[in-house]
Amino acid sequence: MLTRWKDDWRLFLNGSLQFSTMDEYRYHEALVHPALSAHGAPRQVLILGGGDGLAAREVLRDGRVERVTLVDLDPLMTKLFSEHAELSRLNGGALRDPRMEVVNADAYKWLQNSARSFDVVIIDFPDPSNYAVGKLYTTAFYRLLTRRLAPDGLVSVQSTSPLFARKTFWTVVATMEAAGLASSPYHAYVPSFGEWGFVIGSRGPYRVPERFPPGLRYLTPAIARGMFDFPADMARVPAEPNRLDTQVLVQNYEREWARIHHGG
Predict the structure, then answer these.
(1) Is residue 124 flagged as an active site residue?
(2) Strands 194-202 and 182-190, sheet pairing
(3) Each residue's pLDDT tens digit, 141-168
(4) What DSSP designation does 61 have?
(5) Strand 67-72's sheet: what is its strand order?
(6) CA–CA separation, 180 vs 66, rounded Å?
(7) What's the predicted TM-score (pTM) here?
(8) What is the per-residue DSSP string for 83-117?
(9) Which residue of 84, 115, 180, 251 has the smallest Cβ count within 10 Å?
């Protein structure tokens, strides 16, 4: 569902807010650039989810990128955000960019069948609120993903709120580590969502970039360095990895967000 109040467009999927145009740039800059700008030569980029083209808009800011493949399940979403005048303006026409390839497919199956290698992978799935989405946050999925990652590749994952769903967030981190990736968790403040979490996965050590593409509205090298520090109320807590046969992530997510929504 799309809503508009004055200049503010909002997209809701299954009743959950996906973005507000008032502050989506904070979320998408934070999701994309800490990984993309840290890579020495990000020529081939994969975006999983992100059918609104907003993460693609950020990826295409980087002139080093030669090809972007976006895999999103929903053809209506990618069609809407490539053809609707106002919505395609929001993503800067990213879905129609000549460097862009849009694929409508299940990300899990697509990865299983793909033989390509990517320098940077941006994962912009909805929160793990059900088992269908939860499978995209499992050790099995991240192992599959690692096979498609170039040796010096980086992956960035949106990982819900480390403040409101603390155990859920650290479960994502533990899951990526169990799949063999080094994790670099970080967070950013997005007014529409509150404090929001992300994780970068890599095979080797990660270093925060010293520069970002021009034209960003939120991210600077100094801001980025601070994003990797966690205050005490968001600091790491013990969490077991999310596996296909346990789906502990979905259970943690339901428990923690229910507490927020019901004040319990």
Answers:
(1) yes
(2) antiparallel
(3) 999 999 999 999 999 999 999 999 999 9
(4) T
(5) 100-104, 67-72, 44-49, 118-124, 149-158, 194-202, 182-190
(6) 28
(7) 0.95
(8) HSHHHHHHTTTGGG-TTEEEEES-HHHHHHH----
(9) 115
Give alpha helix (H) positions in the chain. 24-36, 54-60, 75-83, 85-90, 107-113, 131-134, 139-147, 166-178, 221-227, 248-262
78 backbone dihedrals φ, ψ, rounded to 5°:
-65, -35
**Is 3.40.50.150 the CATH classification of the domain at 23-262?**
yes
Choose, from 23, 124, 152, 229, the residue flagged as catalytic.
Answer: 124
Within a 10 A sphere around the Cβ of 243, how many other Cβ atoms?
Answer: 16
Structure token digits, residue 242 = 């999310």
Residue range 50-90, pLDDT digits in tens: 999 999 999 999 999 999 999 999 999 999 999 999 889 99
- DSSP run (H or E) holding 11: strand 8-13
Give the residue extent of every domain in the chain: 23-262
Q: Considering only CA atoms, which of 119, 174, 126 is closest in space to residue 151?
A: 119
* Radius of gyration for the alpha carbons in the chain, expressed in angstroms and rounded: 17
Closest CA to 182 of 170, 174, 171: 174
